[in-house]
Amino acid sequence: MTQISRRLEQIVRKELSKNIIPVKTPEGILVGDVLITNQDNLKFLSRKSQMLYAEIHLNSVAIKMANILALRHSHISVDLLYRADQEYGRWFVDSQMLRAQHQKAIHTQDYDRADVLWARYSESRDRTITAKNQAERLL
User: Is the pLDDT score of 9 beyond 80?
Assistant: First the structure.
């Protein structure tokens, strides 16, 4: 074994030790002792039938939060991730509602309202993207 391959193996082992590999079960996805369940497009984290976090929007955030909780690391980082995910969720729902209202205004030929709604939708969409990027940076 060469020095490079040994070093690569050490890095892979170190990275794998930071995360617990998720296992699919009939109830949901199990990460250590934390269960991720899916309801519509939202994820819920629970441990031993006790709800820990509800209505998580991003899959990557849910898995990272479950890993942190399963490894019993700091809850501060979990709370930061959760808040960032909730911010993303608020902006995402807002942008979807504004887009639907814009389509309705176009359908009813209320073009002035449609222009205002499109401007609001564009801003909300941009904030959604920003919030998602901020949540993913915390991963």
Answer: no
